[in-house]
Amino acid sequence: RDLELVIVDNGCRLDAAARAALATDPRVRWVALAEDTGIGPAANAGIAAAVGEYIAIADYDDLSLPTRIAREVAALDADPGLALVSTFADRMDGEGRPLGDRVFTLAAPGEFAAYAPYAAPLVHPASMGRRAVYEEFPFRSPFRFTSELDFYARVTERHRLGVIPEVLLRYRWYPSQTTQRHAANIDQSRCVILQLAARRRAGRPEALDRVEWMTEALSAGEFAARVARQCLDEELFVPAAYLARRAFALDRSPAGAWRATALAAAQWRRTPRTERAAVTAMFRHGPVRALGVTPA
Predict the structure, then answer these.
(1) Closest Cα to residue 106, out of 149, 32, 161?
(2) Could you report the per-residue pLDDT of 70-84, keeping only the tens digit for each?
(3) pLDDT for 93 beyond 80
């Protein structure tokens, strides 16, 4: 079949015996990295090694259903203007038992661009995209555990994405997985990704090299409040409102509540009247309701 499987060993250093079962299949290739470079650079290495026109992302602990690849190839073949497509996904636990809920994704691709600065609008490990898109927007190494969130915030500004309304992936959810073990870093990274996206969408340089980076000296709530103040100073009022809301969600202590309240008051004073309704909706309700997007 016209298919290749590129396996990226991200510093695990599996020996030849562990790879012996794969050596007899010419469709399988192994990319061995000397050290753990992070999720994004490892994905970039796999994409660089691939030779196909379409690239399907597959995390090691998830299960793609047998028809996933064929359905995504058909969707991209049928629509040359479609840059990337994903599918619905159901959650399962570490033992493969269904958890009875679905991974968040938006139902309408036309809503992806507005939502992408806040969170992924689709299921990343269920996605397939054109090689040219990944080459135009490589995963960026500063976002060690959130490079896909930064990727979608950028790619939706230039390209059209789609979703196949079928469950074609089983997404594994368990306490020791990366997204749960590094939750604090991920929360801080999401603040930075939103700040960068807001700058770009306001027609300004994103200034990635000067951005306020994550620090262990601040809690996730304190960091969100700091970036909220920066956005407010830059007159990025709606993102600032979300970050003030996020600061309180991450720290519901009396100090956290006071910090969020002070941010909200400063925001109200400085926001132009024309933007106050949008700012209020974002602070009170979050991006799904404030933006009027529809989860699948």
Answers:
(1) 161
(2) 999 999 999 999 999
(3) yes
